[in-house]
Please model this.
Amino acid sequence: MNARVQGVPGRLDNIVLVADLAGTAVFAVEGAISAMRAQLDLLGVMVIAFIVALGGGVTRDLLIGASPPKAVADWRYPALALVMGGLAFVFHEGVLGISEPLLILLDAAGLGLFAVAGTQKALNVGISSFVATLMGTVTGVGGGVIRDIVLARIPLVLQVDLYASSAFIGAATLILARRLGLAPMACAWLAGSACFALRMLSVHYGWQLPRA
Amino acid sequence: MNARVQGVPGRLDNIVLVADLAGTAVFAVEGAISAMRAQLDLLGVMVIAFIVALGGGVTRDLLIGASPPKAVADWRYPALALVMGGLAFVFHEGVLGISEPLLILLDAAGLGLFAVAGTQKALNVGISSFVATLMGTVTGVGGGVIRDIVLARIPLVLQVDLYASSAFIGAATLILARRLGLAPMACAWLAGSACFALRMLSVHYGWQLPRA
Amino acid sequence: MNARVQGVPGRLDNIVLVADLAGTAVFAVEGAISAMRAQLDLLGVMVIAFIVALGGGVTRDLLIGASPPKAVADWRYPALALVMGGLAFVFHEGVLGISEPLLILLDAAGLGLFAVAGTQKALNVGISSFVATLMGTVTGVGGGVIRDIVLARIPLVLQVDLYASSAFIGAATLILARRLGLAPMACAWLAGSACFALRMLSVHYGWQLPRA
Model:
């Protein structure tokens, strides 16, 4: 890490915390919705809400050696997932009525938040830029991948329009913006926006990656 | 951790060790039985026995940052799983003849043991009460969940009568009993019994959680 | 660890590094091939290449408490997987034309390399011989198992002719050769060859383990 970055560890940790918690809230609701649609009971809804909300961050923390994972050491993470999943269960009539476009928009926002949080946290503990980009991607898609593995289906995020790729581009944008010397908060906004915009554009235009 | 607890680390570690090993033995036999019923060969039987017996504890240890996991650092864990899985394979005629009610009873005992061991170990390393309850639940259901993931089916424990919920209630009972100042051994027995009783009652009466 | 081993940590670490990287390259190509056969897009091909190449080593490192895993801390691991997976994608016409027998031979070589690297690394960090043998096996089969879990199918390696068993025998050979006092490099070659030979023979003769 360069000197400027080491001079503001508090601010960088705060960016990770805020982006992580905001992403956790969004993804917990999303997880609860997908579990209620699969007719799971209250426990199943809470388990899937936890997995989608916390799975990506836990995987990232295990991989970068930040042990124990923040989602275990800091009770606010699971408590937030519990509350959001519980609220989604109680108010299921309203929640299940959320339109598909709005869900995709919320999910894209969560993806951008997690891509930023994951990349920044990996950099904070001294992981190289290239691997930090991968860690940002893992943070963004990890929860959804584990949910699909638990539900015994091939992860959607490996199949749909530039999903993991959007997280990857967001993470790479963060690295690039830091190299250009932008302020930490500007880097975070730029990276999250890049991820969000690419995901929304890819859904709108049906962009796909090439096949062999 | 409070002063009283810190004064008897040896006793608390012993409770974890004994409950962990007893649960490991029970779950290794159960894993071997489910693998033999699925027509797997000797290796498959041993792998599934290991996964069911050690998967929950390994997941707990990775999540709470107890690294390396006890099941890797202490050879008695895998050796016990190896011996119990091997014995189940050799004496498969007798083992496969165990009646379903007896299997459910053994499994409920293993679940109670792991719920106690998991919660107590998380508390021992300084995890908050709320998250420790979740870790006790993960220890109880983790092995079965990983087995079902490996066998490409939706985890049974997310579907059947108050299975994970029983582990959760057992873990919560441990926390409550400690708050009330009961002796560590009394807390452990109370918590294990609560988990066991709830699981058996839920099977008998077919209790289910609500759906949205 | 005995005195002789502690005297040559550099050489032992080098054996792990070289075997790990060679296995990573072979398995990345294999992963890319299986993903291209499953009609995945460029991202899916890269993800599966990463999983098959790095999954076993990451699992081993998490289990033995070598944190963060080498595949995250050392950028050469993911860079190698990226380059090999990318080359397989670009030259897919040639790569997809590789004959089945040659693929099995390459895979058996990768399996031997990972079994050696996994066992040696576990011993290097002070894991007991018995558990180190299991860690060698996990390193060899882990990537393939995680790939199959992600693709929602029962892991092939639990079903085909002495696959995991070959890794286990290779790992056990390494332990035995070290006990006999052979030079580290001789132990590694002997163990890798034992795994490779047993795997090839089992495919040729269709050897199977017994069922209950």
